[in-house]
Write a structure and sequence with these properties.
Blueprint (H helix, E strand, L loop, with lengths): L6 H22 L3 H32 L10 H16 L8 H26 L8 H18 L3 H11 L9
Helix pairs in contact: 1-2, 2-3, 2-4, 4-5, 4-6
Length: 172
């Protein structure tokens, strides 16, 4: 899979690829935790690709020294910041930091999905269906495992990439 430069094709390609892998997973992967890990990783890739532009705009707004526009709502400022990035750095600048973001989100989602699958298989009653409370506990367990297991260097690198100005001297 080779991504095209158009960001909307990136999202479309990721969704098609995830569907193909999940279809193969249903046919050939018997381990529920492994299937869940693949599903989580692919879900994370699609999520990161779709949300990266807003994340880049958010980080730029947080790190800019510009004062808030008086009397203007937050959507106005988001639009101004986004158009400024596109005009000065190009459309693909909205996806700065995508690599660290997608790798971090894929790992987080894979860990969360597989942890939840492991919880379900460990605590599944003879009836085969977890109660609402046990599903709730499984979600807490999966979130805790995800929080403990995933480290923050990818987030730091992503933010540094997003905040650097377009220049010939790239720091990262």
């Amino acid at each position: 899979w080779v991504p095209r430069r158009d960001p909307w094709h990136l999202i479309s390609d990721a969704m098609v690829t995830s569907q193909r892998v999940l279809e193969r997973g249903r046919a050939g992967i018997e381990n529920e935790a492994v299937r869940s890990m693949l599903a989580g990783a692919l879900t994370g890739a699609v999520e990161a690709t779709a949300t990266c532009p807003l994340d880049t705009i958010k980080v730029r707004m947080q790190t800019l020294d510009a004062p808030l526009s008086m009397g203007r709502g937050p959507l106005y400022r988001i639009g101004i910041t986004g158009s400024h990035i596109v005009q000065n750095e190009g459309l693909m600048a909205l996806w700065k930091g995508w690599g660290p973001l997608v790798s971090g989100v894929m790992v987080k989602k894979a860990i969360r999905f597989s942890s939840f699958a492991q919880f379900k298989s460990t605590f599944k009653p003879p009836s085969g269906k977890l109660s609402g409370f046990m599903t709730f506990l499984g979600g807490i367990f999966a979130g805790t495992v995800e929080t403990i297991a995933v480290v923050t260097p990818s987030e730091m690198l992503k933010i540094r990439l997003q905040t650097e100005k377009a220049s010939c001297q790239l720091v990262y």
